[in-house]
Design a protein that fits this description.
globular, Amidase_domain, 18% helix, two-stranded antiparallel sheet, 195 residues, alpha/beta, six-stranded mixed β-sheet, 12 strands, single chain
Length: 195
């Protein structure tokens, strides 16, 4: 795999363009990876609903549990499905709308300087080996392309939005990333109210 520097996209992977994105601040580049977990409907896998949500194509009448998602505009840079299939939605040159209210080392608005990677799964389901393998290869690639992503800059959504988000869940295998990639086990950030 490689990132096309002219587009900010990983060459050769599926791409579904999300409108839920915006420019990064000037002179800002990715320096943090945020790992998420998602399933739609909650606890069910497949069906293409996540891609539809990220591209504003989700028909909330398809399932009563989608009602709360009406009008929601979110995205991530990447989605790793249960079978390991990788889809990109937003160029790494732009902000994807994945982190929401968040803080990392005292900096708010993590979307400005992060890459969001969704794994299809739930806090309770855990994730498959093939998803971890794909995640590891993506993290290796992104750390090569964006050297500001240090070993202490791969975190879960739960670490940057404590009390608000729990994904990728307590059973996510951070020890595996530590062993295989030398990633420092993330620390939950102290919640600081924005001024």
């Amino acid at each position: 795999m490689q990132v096309d520097a002219s587009t900010g996209l990983i060459a050769g992977v599926s791409f579904m363009e999300s409108p839920n994105r915006s420019p990064r601040p000037k002179r800002s580049e990715p320096e943090l990876i945020v790992v998420h977990g998602i399933s739609l409907p909650a606890g069910q896998f497949g069906g293409g609903y996540i891609g539809k949500l990220f591209t504003n194509q989700l028909d909330t009448r398809d399932d009563p549990r989608f009602a709360a998602l009406a009008g929601l505009q979110v995205s991530a840079h990447l989605l790793i499905a249960r079978d390991g299939h990788l889809t990109q939605f937003v160029s790494f040159d732009e902000r994807a709308w994945h982190a929401g209210e968040s803080v990392f080392q005292g900096r708010h608005e993590c979307n400005d300087f992060s890459i969001g990677i969704e794994l299809e799964g739930t806090d309770a389901s855990g994730f498959r080996d093939i998803q971890y393998e794909r995640l590891e290869s993506v993290i290796r690639l992104l750390r090569e392309v964006y050297p500001r992503i240090g070993s202490d800059r791969v975190v879960g959504h739960c670490h940057i939005a404590p009390g608000r988000k729990s994904d990728p869940g307590p059973d996510f295998d951070w020890g595996r990333l530590q062993r295989n990639l030398g990633i420092t086990r993330p620390i939950t950030q102290r919640r600081v109210l924005a001024t």
